[in-house]
Write the structure tokens for this entry.
Amino acid sequence: MRDVTNTPALHRRAFLKYTGALGAAAALSSSLAACSSGPESTNDTNDGGGGKNATLTAVIGYGNDGSWDPTQTASAFCMAANNHIYEGLLDTDPISREPYAALATQVPADLTSTSWKFELRAGAKFHDGKPVTADDVVFVFDRILDPKTPTLAKGFFASWLKEVKKIDAQNVELVLKFPFPDGISRLTLAKIMPKHVFSQPGAWDDAIKGKAIGSGPYRQTAHHPKSNTTFEAFADYNGPRKAAFKKMNWLTIVDAAPRVAKISGSSAGAQIADNIPYANIEQLKQGGMTVQGGAGMNNLFLMFNTQHKPFDDVRVRQALHYAIDTGKMVEVALKGHGKPSSSFLNEGNPFYRPAKTVYSYDPEKAKKLLKDAGVSGLKIEILAVNVSWIVDCLPTIKSSWDAIGVETTLSPQETTAVFTKMDQKQDYQVVAAASNPNQFGLDADLIMHYNYGPENLWMQYARWAGNSVAKQLFKEMDAATQEPDADKKKTMIQDYIDIVAEEAVLYPVVHNELMTAWNPKRLSGIRAQPYPGINLLQAKWV
């Protein structure tokens, strides 16, 4: 759910490049590389010979050179790290997404009210020793709601949150535009940052580059965008989820082979890694590692340029979806760790309902739709991101489309290159990429607005926002956002997802699992996430 109309193209490309939603690129920013402090290390710097004071070493399969500013980052690495460094008024469990009191002392009793009052936790301090106050809370929300400041977080709050007011030094009030119970879980996306630090000239640029000072259980001790970020338990933390590890070293290893090697064998240098390739699951299990998957919104989607004929015809878009042998794709490319899409939402989402249009494999129907649309001799180049599992899926799409007489060429490229073309409004036919808005939550309203909306980035890329069907869809989406009755709202969202499915402008082909591996002899309390990154706030040494 992002309004990116006024976001500079560079920031929009960075958003797309570094989000786990699209996979990480290996390219590194020289300006970020300059933001390095302390001794660079990609090794486990254990204290105490592997005992309770050992450094936990984690391997993250995404770059850590994206924006670290919590108000605008979508970087898988940085969001995961920020969840350990910062707190919201409320935070959410990484799996269930149930909200719990973090900087605030309790969750509001009446979620249907248009006024939520929060008392801050007594004695809460930032990592520089300064107390957390209401001024810090107002400072962050003012930035998020400022119409002149383009941030990712604005899209999560501006539609329903009117203002945040200071009551006194330890109390704040959130004033809502209308009752919006779903907003309570979104408060974790507004990390509270020290005003005395980030109100200084140039401080937001520093935040982008990696400066992180929060009130969470871990403080950042060094940041090297090319290699790693280190953490230390914050001694003065007095919140609900205390640090179990004295030190942590998170390595960024985007390439699969060295990432797997880092946690393999008796001399493994790390205890946990995310983004495990399906082909390495059995190898790691045989080596004593626990490997588990998280099934969620992670998906391969197709996005059509609706201003490039014949993709302005819904029958053509539908035909190309019906033609894909998704069963083969799940079996061969995903090794069984996925399901063909039966809705925009994955089956585990609380708002899931099979869409009225489900693209089961039906090549004959695909041929008929193309014939009805008057299309023959169609040649397509698929512009695709070169994320490894996406590349594995592409041959199935090509063979499926070739089989119905659509001559198909595959063109996988760096994620940055693909979306630079989108930003520059270059012509294209079809894009194949990955998305996972679950890193922002399970909220179906958020997920759908993240992908669809009149000023939405994706709709700009698909060039569909001006379509009459699109305009009606956006009205129905906004009406669902403001619907106070929970059951009615759920039905309204499911109904407009039926429109999204039928139109197939930007739509998932398969939903797949994300795999996490860890050493059960060293770690307990680990839960595999259905979105990129790791959360160690309830983990501990064995």
Remarks:
- Residues 34 and 224 are 8 Å apart (CA to CA).
- The longest helix spans residues 486-503.
- Residues 1-39, 41-49 have pLDDT under 50 and may be disordered.
- The two ends are 39 Å apart (CA to CA).
